[in-house]
Amino acid sequence: MLALAAELFAQKGYRATTVREIADAAGILSGSLYHHFDSKESIGDEILSSFVNQVLTNYRAAASAADPRAALEQIVRSTSHTLSQHRAALAMLQHDWSYFATHPRFAYLPKALREIERIWINQLELGKQDGLFRPDLDAKLTYRLLRDVLWIPEQWRRTRGYSTDQVVDGFLRILFDGIAVPADC
Amino acid sequence: MLALAAELFAQKGYRATTVREIADAAGILSGSLYHHFDSKESIGDEILSSFVNQVLTNYRAAASAADPRAALEQIVRSTSHTLSQHRAALAMLQHDWSYFATHPRFAYLPKALREIERIWINQLELGKQDGLFRPDLDAKLTYRLLRDVLWIPEQWRRTRGYSTDQVVDGFLRILFDGIAVPADC
Amino acid sequence: MLALAAELFAQKGYRATTVREIADAAGILSGSLYHHFDSKESIGDEILSSFVNQVLTNYRAAASAADPRAALEQIVRSTSHTLSQHRAALAMLQHDWSYFATHPRFAYLPKALREIERIWINQLELGKQDGLFRPDLDAKLTYRLLRDVLWIPEQWRRTRGYSTDQVVDGFLRILFDGIAVPADC
Amino acid sequence: MLALAAELFAQKGYRATTVREIADAAGILSGSLYHHFDSKESIGDEILSSFVNQVLTNYRAAASAADPRAALEQIVRSTSHTLSQHRAALAMLQHDWSYFATHPRFAYLPKALREIERIWINQLELGKQDGLFRPDLDAKLTYRLLRDVLWIPEQWRRTRGYSTDQVVDGFLRILFDGIAVPADC
DNA sequence: TATGAATGAGGGTTCATTCAT
DNA sequence: CATGAATGAACCCTCATTCAT
To answer: What beta strand segments (E) does D25-86 contain?
Structure first.
């Protein structure tokens, strides 16, 4: 039931999906949905909160990895893993972020995003201090760019013909080594 | 007027923005909007089509650069430049892509996106053939990842404290050289 | 100008025609129409009142014809003639009678229709008394049927005082045998 | 519910009647109407299509009557009967014919009218051939006049191919003498 | 005279939600 | 649990009319 709603939210967006569509998909009438959920918001809440909680749990765990590069790798991989289970949640966030960002009920979402940013930047800064990353690396900017790839990007799934692992490996390759042939050395 | 609507569309999404909000922002009544525009759709159309047209023009020009690396650099830089002028259009596309993608009136958008992809992938493939890019580079996958950074990503503007040039340079640095300290050499 | 409006009113109906359409047809903007007319109503007024006035003038004149058959013939012929000059007015009445019938500004229309009915019925009755028309002719019913052909055939239902069968029988009688007393035989 | 809407449509016209008025008459709010009907158009559709279907069914049946006079009588009587059940539909057609005639959703209406005309004219022609009706009877013109009484008296102007005088003379002929061959005399 | 931007009431329609059955 | 009729606010849009220019 929740999965049905999530799928629809992912496809059409949270706001653009009507409760009647959800009910139709479930084979019941719209009024009957309210025996299962308090409101449309509560459906969204359940989908989104379970997602960000899992992300936060993973990120906090990654923060205690051996070194920043390992931490970042763990973050990227766990993100990919979480996303494969919560595709719909990500799609919803992308689609209707401006709605969730301002709606009181979903105030925990911006808060979670801020913590996620903190963790990323922490690890990038640590990597610089440890000499693992370029000393001129701009942590905040880098995070923004990376987040855009790991998060907001519409659908990993749309990249047909690639396994999730292939995608992650490709991303890491570019991330760490770039796409250019190393000068000469 | 168009700019006002664009700004609102960017902030709240095309569908979530009501014509009354646009009219309010313009200091007129909702009905008066229709003196300036045929419909809400036509406002969206004007914003989006002028955007994709500029992008396509630039990309086609870039395709005739000296070499693929120059072409890609020109593509990235022109994208950044176009985006700085059409921030709202990008935000709209991200926000309500599922709507625009299916609405007949906006059928030119998916078409444009396909051409954009073709141009990117062409240059990446050419770069591989010319030995400029890693021979194991996966063009399609790389494009997807890059597009996610250059396109779908929420708002460049949100990256406060950075000039547009800084952001582009940062992106290119990562793109070409990665973030890792080169092995030893 | 008036003719333009009349033509449009006739084609699409008075209410369904917008002032902008009239202005477009006149090659000016909608606001400019108001330098020529006070309101849409006043345009309709001019078209309709000149029509009914001509009809009434003709009917009153016909009432003083030699005999009822001549009077009726004059009525029918003058109606046809007036209609050829005021086609639009008739179309308007047919189209939006329910509107004109209730609008205070057009109160003269129902009044005129009542006078028209009186004149018809008078002549039919006179014809019966003079032995020109079948003695069993129902003047009121006959008028209703004739008016429906010549005028604004309202609704069968409005023919109060007659059962449906009476109406049908009356119609069939006229249809097959006419209203005139058979020549001599 | 349908009957309520039909009554209002008949009184004020289809276009001039608002869904809010229908809802008011039903004692509900305008939005609630959409629980029962897809749209205002679908209400009109149901009213009109059931009407023309019944008419067509009856007319087709009448076409196989013993002789043309019986067929016409059956047509007239069935029309009267159908009309007593679908008064509103007729009023709607009269009122907003120009709308229905052009709206794609109601394209079946002009088509039905054409079949109705074919059936009438067929029987009138057969009656002439069989010597039941005056040999000089103009089938098409006669139908037009009759239809005006029984149906949607459109516009005189629409009777193409006849001069105004021809139309008037034809009308007077029917009016005074009917269409049947005088008994014997 | 003509313009054209603006009005403001009202049009048809959608939709999350409620509730008696 | 499910129904389905009803709500009521909000949606996009239309249109006769006004008025400063």
So the answer is: none
